[in-house]
Design goal:
Oligomer: heterodimer
Largest sheet of chain A: 2 strands, antiparallel
Radius of gyration of chain A: 22 Å
Number of helices of chain B: 1
Radius of gyration of chain B: 18 Å
Structural class of chain B: alpha+beta
Largest sheet of chain B: 5 strands, antiparallel
CATH class of chain B: Mainly Beta
CATH topology of chain B: Jelly Rolls
Order of helices and strands of chain A: HHHEHHHHHHHHHEEEEH
Order of helices and strands of chain B: HEEEEEEEEE
Number of strands of chain A: 5
Strand order of the largest sheet of chain A: 2-5
Helix content of chain B: 10-25%
Chain lengths: ~325, ~140
């Protein structure tokens, strides 16, 4: 459909030029190249444009009917959304975590990252670290990590994502939590949109995965060897089984990129451990609260995980993250 | 000279989509993000150029005990955008069609879930051919506790 639209657009433009008396003669290879270029550039508008096939959606116990597959098949675009660095940091903090600066990727490492893959991964990592520090009111650390994220963004050629003005705004509002969070969310949006605008959705997906793994690393490290029973932070880590499914689909859509293909191999090892965690959820009922205008999605979930499985997950995340920051 | 024209034509054709994408980002930032207030924008960016009659889908995990707001906005040329929130059992938990195509919806989950958001650009009645497509942005906000 998209290609047809593009071809149609080009034909319309061509006809318009002809009617204006400004004929442009494009040889076939050039025309094909132009169409290809157009298709590539348009693909930058979203995380992907692949039509869905028979994919598993939701918990592993859930089956999807043919009707649902028919519905999915109509979609022109499919987005896979991971928790952003800011959301990840907020989830960790709300679970009762404490701040530990030693867990962050040292900013002195920034100069080591010289490839697109390591820069993209560590743009995500530094943005999560920045979000974590900001939510715990670590003002100077927040500025330092914004600078480290800027260094990664500059290396990726997205100079406008985080500029000097961003750093100045951060410094001027360092005691204003709302403004700081707005600056962080805006810089993250700028980074991912700049990468997609320049037809590099694969790198945008790597940024997201880097940030997601960093959140998982901080959370699992903060739990350490503590008992997992009734541990809120463990609950949040277990929830990442649901997001891991999305991580794989997001990367799979960009697997033609060699860096993404390599990342899929690296991250696949987590699947074995996530598969050992069982989550079952009851039917959801939506209950609107007319007074607050907030709808409560009521349901219950049951999680089965052992201390051993949690330790295994912690170790694998540790190894993965160490590879990312090395 | 002919080659210069050919090269220029390709370059121009390549620049057009960048402009469209930039407009889409500007629209998301200036129009859709505002709808999230007082919720904090999570920083993720999802926007696409959709044509009337087309659909888009978004998959996301939402976490328990967190207050979320979703904002779905289409550029002025498009008719009202319909969005539906669907669970893993394919139940429609919410549709803005019954809420006069409201751009926002606030919700909280008792248990973390992966949900699907379906965006539908309904066919407009008598829209001119050249404005039958536009930018649609999907954004999320949350509340800090």
């Amino acid at each position: 459909m998209l290609i047809l639209l593009l071809i149609n657009n080009v034909i319309v433009q061509y006809k318009n030029l002809q009617t204006m008396g400004k004929k442009i003669f494009l040889s076939l290879p050039v025309t094909v190249a132009a169409l290809f270029l157009l298709a590539v550039m348009f693909s930058g508008c979203a995380s992907n444009k692949k039509k869905a096939t028979g994919e598993n959606f939701g918990l592993d116990s859930t089956e999807i009917s043919e009707d649902l597959l028919d519905d999915i098949g109509k979609a022109k675009q499919i987005f896979y959304s991971l928790p952003s660095p800011l959301e990840t940091a907020m989830l960790i903090k709300n679970a009762g975590a404490t701040y530990n600066e030693e867990l962050l990727n040292p900013i002195s490492n920034a100069s080591k990252y010289t490839t697109n893959k390591t820069r993209a991964l560590n743009l995500g990592i530094y943005t999560t670290d920045l979000s974590f520090a900001s939510l715990f009111d670590q003002t100077q650390t927040s500025i330092d990590y914004m600078n480290a994220a800027k260094q990664m963004a500059n290396g990726l050629g997205i100079l406008d994502a985080i500029d000097n003005n961003t750093i100045e705004r951060l410094e001027e509002n360092i005691n204003n939590r709302d403004v700081i969070m707005d600056i962080i969310s805006e810089t993250f949006m700028n980074s991912s949109s700049s990468l997609t605008e320049t037809a590099r959705p694969a790198l945008a997906s790597i940024v997201l995965v880097g940030g997601w793994v960093e959140g998982l690393y901080i959370a699992t490290s903060l739990v350490g060897d503590a008992p997992i029973k009734d541990n809120k932070l463990v609950g949040r880590i277990v929830d990442q089984k649901l997001s891991f499914d999305i991580v794989l689909k997001l990367l799979d859509d960009n697997k033609d990129n060699p860096d993404v293909a390599e990342l899929i191999k690296e991250i696949k090892d987590l699947q074995v451990t996530f598969d050992k965690i069982i989550i079952t959820t009851s039917k959801i009922s939506a209950v609107p609260d007319e007074e607050s205008n907030v709808t409560i999605l009521k349901s219950e979930s049951k999680v089965t995980i052992t201390q051993e499985i949690f330790r295994e997950l912690t170790e694998k995340v540790n190894v993965l993250r160490q590879n990312f920051i090395s | 000279m002919k080659r210069i024209f050919q090269f220029a034509a390709i370059a121009i054709l390549g620049i057009i989509p960048i402009g469209v994408n930039a407009q889409c980002k500007g629209f998301a930032k200036k129009v859709c993000k505002v709808e999230l207030a007082p919720y904090i924008h999570d920083g993720n960016y999802h926007a696409a150029i959709l044509t009337v009659g087309e659909e888009a889908e978004l998959y996301k995990t939402f976490y328990s005990a967190t207050d979320y707001r979703i904002a779905v906005c289409g550029t002025g040329d498009l008719a009202d955008i319909e969005f539906r929130i669907i669970d893993a059992d394919r139940n429609v938990l919410y549709t803005n069609k019954s809420k006069n195509y409201s751009r926002i919806w606030d919700f909280r989950l008792e248990a973390s879930q992966q949900l699907k958001i379906t965006i539908i650009v309904p066919p407009g009645s008598g829209l001119p051919e050249d404005i039958q497509q536009g930018c649609v942005a999907i954004m999320f906000g949350f509340k800090e506790k």
